[in-house]
Specification:
The structure is a single chain. By secondary structure, the chain is an alpha/beta fold. The protein is 34% helix and 13% strand. It contains 17 helices and eleven strands. It has a six-stranded parallel beta sheet with strand order 3-2-1-4-5-6, with helices on both faces. The protein has a three-stranded antiparallel beta sheet with strand order 7-8-9, with helices on one face. Helix 1 (25-35) crosses helix 7 (175-196), helix 6 (146-152) crosses helix 8 and helix 7 (175-196) crosses helix 8. The protein is elongated. Bound molecules: oxidized coenzyme A.
Length: 418
């Protein structure tokens, strides 16, 4: 598909993906595989396509940013897989591809007549990869969206402030997080297939993926049995890992503090970490030299019960500076800190443009838009971000590759199968 890379080889060149994904979790996975060079054939329902094409539209009758930003570098074929002619094409596609990726509601592919057993009959080398909301158990039949997974995977109960309700995060850890896991499962299965010659099933559950990312919170759950979590800012802990506000998940105390302009700018904040190794330097910067040798402050243990007061004192200093001035003051001293960057600032950041992490893409009906490029950079497998396909843009091209003749294609179209 690529011109700009002058035919540079990529890691997954030659791998064919039958992409039966929709919404976010599955498409993030197949988009990554496409960026690594796989030929991703997205199968969509005739006339409708992936529902996200029409969701959260900013322009009338144009594929939404939701869709375009999750489906780069793919080809689109429309296929009614519940019609007889559509099933015949799907069978041909199963034989033609290396991997089938899907994130339908549980049982949908079986109901279509394509169970794992049937797929193995059609192509024993096929890797059949799925995202589901839950693994086997009481919830396995449920339909699941991002925030349901964040709640069921332990993230919501451990996010937010101790005196507030559970919170979901803006990071799509349930959808995009699970898509990342699925991509790893697929390339691992491809690697194993080189030795065994056999395909296999790859299943990632969104609940499992979120819980995996909440590993440190299950760690804290077990620490609770031996006493309160001293690094948490909470007055009481209860019997389950509590919400810890902006406290660090590791052993280094940290917090988000206000910077100059916070009264009007919702992102005039910085995250600061008072690591033991830089405690003395931090005291000097904020004008609290006396804390360096004071036994009440000199050791991490002595500081733990006073963290709120310490961060309030740091904030008196940070409020006199912009977040970038705080960075300029602390970075040369090796004091870990991070500005709270808005989406506007990230979109405009030149270094992210330079690395291809933020990319401008041109689209025939919507024009230019920004997207997040491949977050994984490989020295011998360059990524070029290409626009998402229009609905059914490659239907005829793919059917010809599968060996269908013009008359068969016309008949399938008249039948509504494509
Ligand atoms: N031709 C014919 N039928 C098609 C088709 C095609 N090309 N593509 C899809 N369909 C059919 C499916 O077979 C299914 O039919 P049945 O219900 O008769 O089996 C129907 O379309 C609906 O598919 P679906 O069940 O996947 O979609 P939904 O809107 O009902 O549910 C979702 C959406 C996301 C909740 C569900 O797919 C799901 O739980 N997926 C797994 C978890 C997941 O990935 N969630 C992430 C969502 S992003 O936040």
């Amino acid at each position: 598909m690529s011109d700009a890379l002058n035919g540079a080889a990529r890691a997954l060149d030659g791998v064919r993906i039958l992409d039966f994904t929709h919404v976010q979790s599955g498409p993030t996975c197949t988009q990554l595989l496409a960026w690594f060079g796989a030929d991703v054939i997205k199968v969509e329902r005739p006339g409708a396509g992936d529902p996200t094409r029409g969701q959260l539209r900013d322009l009338p009758d144009v594929d939404s940013l939701y869709f375009t930003m999750l489906n780069h570098n793919k080809r689109s074929i429309t296929l009614n897989t519940k019609s007889e002619k559509g099933k015949a094409v799907l069978e041909r596609l199963v034989g033609h591809c290396d991997v089938l990726v899907e994130n339908f509601a549980p049982g949908a592919l079986d109901r279509m007549g394509f169970s794992w057993e049937r797929i193995q009959e059609l192509n024993p080398r096929m890797i059949y990869a799925s995202v589901k909301g839950f693994g086997p158990g009481p919830y396995e039949d449920l339909k699941v969206y991002e925030n349901v997974a964040q709640c069921a995977g332990g993230s919501a109960s451990t996010t937010g402030f101790a005196d507030g309700p559970p919170m979901v995060t803006g990071s799509q850890i349930g959808d995009s997080g699970t898509g990342l896991n699925l991509a790893l499962g697929i390339v691992t299965a491809l690697y194993q297939r080189d030795r065994t010659g056999r395909g296999q099933r790859v299943l990632t559950a969104m609940q499992d993926s979120v819980l995996n990312l909440c590993r440190v919170k299950l760690r804290d759950q077990q620490r609770l049995a031996h006493g309160p979590l001293a690094e948490y800012p909470n007055d009481t802990s209860g019997d389950a890992t509590p919400r810890a506000g902006n406290a660090s998940g590791g052993g280094q105390p940290g917090w988000i503090v206000k910077c100059k302009g916070w009264e009007t700018d919702p992102n005039a904040y910085v995250y600061v970490i008072t690591q033991a190794a830089i405690w003395g330097k931090f005291c000097k910067v904020i004008g609290k030299d006396e804390w360096i040798d004071d036994p009440e402050y000199a050791t991490p243990k002595a500081r733990l019960p006073k963290l709120e007061h310490i961060f309030d004192t740091i904030e008196v200093w940070t409020k006199t500076k912009t977040k970038f001035e705080v960075m300029d003051a602390l970075n040369p001293l090796g004091i870990p800190c991070g500005p709270i960057l808005s989406m506007k600032e990230l979109a405009e950041e030149p270094s992210l443009r330079a690395t291809g992490t933020v990319v401008e893409v041109d689209h025939p009906t919507r024009g230019k838009y920004l997207t997040v490029g491949n977050p994984i950079k490989m020295s011998d497998s360059p990524t070029e971000v290409l626009r998402s396909p229009l609905l059914g843009e490659h239907t005829d091209e793919i059917l010809h590759e599968l060996g269908f003749g013009d008359n068969e294609i016309t008949a399938a179209r008249e039948d509504g199968a494509i």
